Amino acid sequence: MAVTIKDVARRAGVNASTVSRAIHNHSAISEKTKEKVKKAMADLGYSRNSAAQMLASGKAGAIGVIFPPIENKSEQPFFMKILTAINQEARQNKITVSIASGHTNAELLSQVRVMYQEKRVDGFIMLYVGEEDAVREYLLADEIPFVIVGTPVERANDITAVDNDNKLMGAEATQYLATLGHKKLAFVTNTDKGEVFRDRYRGFDEKIQSLGLSGHLLNTTKTSSLGGATALVVLDDILAIKVIQGLSEQGIGVPDDISVISFNNSVFASLIHPYLTTFDINITQLGHRSVQKLLHLLANPSDFHEKVTVPFELKVRESTKAVN
């Protein structure tokens, strides 16, 4: 039987959440307590790979990946890239991956129920965050282990999540354009829903206010009314490419007439000119960490939930330039 965090906690004379924080080198845990935990781990032969050991002796030895109930998932390279990363990490831990996908939330919920009730999987990774989402509510109600890639608003303390700091990313995109001399900016989106949009736009808007710049929200169906903007912050790379094509049809060149900055650093960002200046959200690490956190929950179901923040990096390419 694999050693668990509870075993380590009993040996060290602390609670399980303290052990988990000590393992993650949390600043709230004293060095003395960390040393006690470290000694208990060594005495019991506990390793952070014990989650994989427990999974290997479990009922399924598999995890489920839940795709969002949307059409044309293949047009979003994020999903294929993160699935590749999840598969890589799962393979390292000698477990398999099953996919749950549906055109509607009802179809998706039905598939998730069957996968878990028939013991095909031990837990799930959700690749989306939805408001009042039936799938998430089912997982919570039945206390099924799961991790969300994204930032939940509702019941955040009950959910383990892996995400970037999208608000900070929106702010840094705005700051970068400001350093190039742009004073009139627009945030371009094709949706007003979802935490990714809300956080990135909030970061943009707050930075606009703090820098005393001019900024507004722009729907992609209205790219002809740029409102004098000299730079655009676009929700994601796919949308940015469509925006650039639309601007080109109007005789507006990027970056000579207007700068464009985007997010995700997808494969399309450097396929056609101008290459996109975009933020690399480190999809590979998002995938790896989501598997690691799910395995941890499976091995230690009573442990506390947390949000893991994965770093991002700005990739400066051809779609932005300084104001003359």
TrEMBL record:
SUPFAM superfamilies: lambda repressor-like DNA-binding domains, Periplasmic binding protein-like I. The keyword Transcription regulation applies. It comes from the Bacteria. Transmembrane segments: none annotated. Keywords: DNA-binding, Transcription, Transcription regulation. GO terms for molecular function: DNA-binding transcription factor activity; transcription cis-regulatory region binding. Residues 3-57 form the HTH lacI-type domain. InterPro entries: HTH_LacI (IPR000843), LacI/GalR-like_sensor (IPR046335), Lambda_DNA-bd_dom_sf (IPR010982), Peripla_BP_I (IPR028082). Gene3D superfamilies: 3.40.50.2300, lambda repressor-like DNA-binding domains (1.10.260.40). This is HTH lacI-type domain-containing protein.
